[in-house]
Amino acid sequence: MPQRSPRRQVSRLPPERRIADIMTAARAIFAEKGYTEHVISEIAERAGVVEGTIYRFFANKNDLLQQVAEAWFQEMMDQSAANFAAIRGEWNALHFVIFHTLEAIRRDPGLTRLMLYELRPEPEHRDSRLYALHHDYTGRLCAIVRDGMARGVFRPDADPELARDIAFGAIEMRTWSYLHHKSSFEPVPLAREITDMLYAGLLPRTAPVPQDETLRRLEAVSLRLERLADQGEG
User: Nearest to residue 93, comparing CAs of 103, 83, 79?
Assistant: First the structure.
């Protein structure tokens, strides 16, 4: 009888390795091509798997994107954590957070676009781990302001959440053109400019803020008109 050739051993990677390969491929493809219709087939090809394998580990394309974004954000936080803890001085700490954010946007514009324009608008975003990570990351700036208030560096009536919104709002507005392929930006001077303006606005006031008398009168008239309008509607 002819001898049978030995059956070839098929190498099966453990699930953890498969998931890691898919995540690596997905991060690259999402960053390059965005959230396009045929992106899953390209991810499968680059990861060396069939499309069905992806759906064994991820519910759908959105689930895969969500997990890629979460891993990216966690990586960004972990990389900066040790350096952030070593920073001394309120200006330096504010600058570190602002510069680190700008540098992350410049380095990974594709993932930033997906997070801002694909994942953030979703109704369930506030219940996601990505939202929690983002809240913790931006919360670093709130903590800096609170610490500065406690140490007497910043004025006692400062609003940490408003300071956070101003800083990250400025970052988003000033990088919008870059994320839409319309222009570039330099993280170093932009980080310094945003930090200088934010820091100056948080310092104790040395003199009352001047208010224009005409402006006060116009505001009073506007309030009276609003009350009259409300009474008329009632």
Answer: 83
Note whether residue 138 is domain-resident. Answer: yes
Distance CA 170, CA 194 (A): 7
Using DSSP's 3-state secondary structure scheme, residue 100 falls into helix
**CA angle, residues 92, 98, 100, in degrees to nearest 5:** 95
Q: Is residue 121 part of a domain?
A: yes
Q: Does residue 225 lie in a domain region? A: no
Yes or no: say if 31 and 111 are a contact pair by the CB < 8 Å rule.
yes
To which residue do tokens 């506030």 refer? 126
Q: What is the pLDDT of residues 38-69, one digit of tens each?
A: 788 999 999 999 989 999 999 999 999 999 99
Provide the domain count of the chain: 2
Do 203 and 155 touch, CB atoms closer than 8 A? Answer: yes
CA 119 – CA 117 distance, rounded (Å) = 6
Do 148 and 33 reside in the same domain of the chain? no
pLDDT tens-place string over residues 73-103: 999 889 888 888 889 999 999 999 999 999 9
**Tokens 């208030």 sit on residue:** 149
Q: Which residue, among 112, 101, 10, 5, has the nearest Cα to 69 in the 3D structure?
A: 112
pTM beyond 0.90, yes or no? no
Q: Are residue 189 and residue 89 in the same domain, yes or no?
A: yes
If one counts every other C-beta atom within 10 angstroms of the C-beta of residue 30, the result is 25
Q: Are 74 and 44 in a shared domain? A: no
71 CB burial (10 A radius; 0-12, 13-18, 19+): middle
pLDDT band at 184 (very low <50, low <70, confident <90, very high): very high
